[in-house]
Amino acid sequence: MAAHSAYLSARMSDLFEASGIHPPDAPLADRLRPRALDQVVGQDHLLGPDGPIRRMIDSGRLGSMILWGPPGTGKTTIARLLAQAAGYQFQQISAVFSGVADLKKAFETARTRRAAGQSTLLFIDEIHRFNRAQQDGFLPFVEEGIVTLVGATTENPSFELNGALLSRSQVFVLKRLDDAALDQLLSRAEVDLDRPLRVTPEARQALLALADGDGRYLLTMAEILFALPPDQTLDVQGLAGLLQKRAPAYDKSREEHYNLISALHKSVRGSDPDAALYWLARMLNGGEDPLYLARRIVRMAVEDIGQADPLSLLVANAAKETYDFLGSPEGELALAQAVVHLATAPKSVAVYEGYKAASRAARETGSLTPPAHIRNAPTKLMKSLGYGEGYQYDPHLESGFSGADYFPDGMERRTFYDPKGEGHEAKVRERLDRWAALRAARRAG
User: Fold this and answer.
1) pLDDT tens digits, one per residue of 32-74
2) What's the CA gap between 129 and 122, in Å, rounded?
């Protein structure tokens, strides 16, 4: 009920805005909502003179589109102003509160308008919440031009929207608002209320950081600050005591999760311990399962470091065991130690690439048997068939190396493991080269 009431309240705000007025008790964010596309901040790459949406408006014809971006970046506002600029009727529904009946009603209303010569821009908020079958239901009305569809989503459209719907729409990515754009919103609020925000410069900067790119959230916090006594000026400490710190935007099951774990892994692979620690902290602060991170750290050790620093695998496993033993928050330090060790370790993918190449060869060669000299010979019959005949026990040899062929009969020797000589693998490379020379000499002899 609370969510439904909030939605109805937002719809009432939309009606007031459409009429050009705002109720006296409207939130500051609604009172400052842009009334023209030129007033939208932070999205010049889309709305500037050379932006694709601006060019679409200048051409006089709107196409269906998906606006993808974080909360508070202006998706709803842009859709409404697009309809206004193009002379379309603006109709809004939310995928959170609407079902098939609401969609049918919206499409029929748009059909009636079209018959009367009026175009409709149908704005669907949280469009990714409609299931695949419902999304398919949009297609005939979009194809016939009954509506120009503008969908808004905070989720990656590639994952959440039907391919057929995406192929009929342009996807525009809205950026999180940077500090300059957020400060511009604060300045507008100060002009609207005809008084400055009573915070120190440092506290103002901290306020921008708390907003985390969300313009609506910034103005909601600013409204609290404007309500303070006019003789009170807050510093950073006072601001922190008054405002609740916002949880970072992070969804453990969606795109942001994959973006951040990719950033962590690639920072380690790129030997940047500082960036790696930052992304580790971002994920832990966002509520990521530390054991998921521990598993990924072990993967880094075997995938990107391997034999260049065999200790890395031991460190990664030890970090996992330490976290199991200590839990949070103390155990998280073990994960940080492992990340720093891996980021500063020499890197080698020789084992990783060698195993992949060996796997391909194993699939290609099928069921070739081992050469007779290394087959197991537990019975007299097997020995009479030559199993184990001529086998040399390498550790007993003076050189410690026999140079025998261990590949299947009928398969030419291949090189799968080819270390480049980084870290511990420098010595491994030397041994392999020496053994290769001995093997070649044996064959020549």
Assistant:
1) 889 999 899 999 999 998 899 999 888 878 889 999 988 889 9
2) 16
Strand 65-68 and strand 170-173: the pairing is parallel
Give SS3 for 171: strand
Output the CA torsion sign for 94, 179, 248, 315.
positive
Q: For residue 428, what is the enclosing H or E element?
A: helix 425-444
Token reading at 106: 């919206």
The 120-125 sheet, strands edge to edge? 89-94, 120-125, 148-153, 65-68, 170-173
Q: Which two structure tokens, joined as six digits, stand for 431?
A: 């041994």
φ, ψ of residue 170 in degrees (nearest 5): -95, 140
Rounded CA-CA distance 247/294 in Å is 23
Q: How many CA atoms lie within 13 A of 413 on its CB side?
A: 10
| Rounded alpha-carbon distances, angstroms, from residue 158 to 64, 73, 154, 315 | 16, 20, 12, 37
pLDDT beyond 60 at 293: yes
How far is residue 91's CA from residue 79's CA, in Å, rounded to a whole number? 10
Angle at 307 between CA 297 and CA 283, to 5 degrees: 10
